[in-house]
């Protein structure tokens, strides 16, 4: 029974280790030549890193094999697992389309190729046997020039049947040197009616209050309640939701102990700020969304009531969920005992 919404999952980090290993065995053995067996690869792929930069390097491993030809292979397996093992009813996949285009092409040619990537991801994401509502968030990137990032926004506008918003990826500590540029890009996106989220306040190096007014949701945002709780009132007033990805902060060295998140949840609930619990990179972590829920409960970071509030918030803040209620509410109406009058009419 599909019940949950996932608002923050990267396409590059969504491939579980076993699926990636099998692909490499069949098509790119050179990429796993240094691993004697699968267990060594899994340990390498999922182990914690010391910094966010080191962690993000793993994305390049997957991006190199996620091409227009192979994306359907990876997305089919992603959605199959999301439906069967995670009970997802809604999934937003985020990625940088430019980084899935052939590197040997010129920049203008790669920009033109991005539309094909978006279409392939969109069509591959609609599987009748795994009926999940899906949409894409296109990520600008700190390594890409202004003209490419602006083209990504234009692409989102032109492909609303597949795309529900934009983001910026590549490490939040790199925003400062181009901060005016990021502000202008987000302002441009909002002027075109594009939904916005962004990796912000994930680490202590990524705290830029200047960008907050341009975001509808905040990717991670945990440093706001941890270091700048005075900002929470404005976050609540703007109706912004934090996309909190618990396992990520242990994998990137951002937090030493998951129990540090208790302050994040407590401060946000007290201030009336919504939180959507997400996985970020389910493949890199080898962790699925229900485990994130269970982990937060096990460590007494949240209560069952708070968990349900976060699950409902995820649907409220979903950019492309087409219904007014989450699926649990819709199902409860379907499963109500029928009235005696209806039963008598059937007899």
From TrEMBL:
One Gene Ontology MF term: adenosine deaminase activity
The cofactor(s) it depends on are: Zn(2+)
GO cellular component labels:
cytosol
Q: Which SUPFAM superfamilies match?
A: Metallo-dependent hydrolases
Q: Report whether Hydrolase shows up as a keyword of the record.
A: yes
The EC number(s) given in the record are 3.5.4.4
- Keywords for this entry? Hydrolase, Metal-binding, Zinc
Task: Output one GO BP term.
Answer: adenosine catabolic process
Q: Which Gene3D superfamilies match?
A: Metal-dependent hydrolases
**Domain Adenosine deaminase positions:** 5-319
Similarity-based family? Belongs to the metallo-dependent hydrolases superfamily. Adenosine and AMP deaminases family.
Protein's name according to its UniProt entry: adenosine deaminase
- Organism lineage: Bacteria, Bacillati, Cyanobacteriota, Cyanophyceae, Nostocales
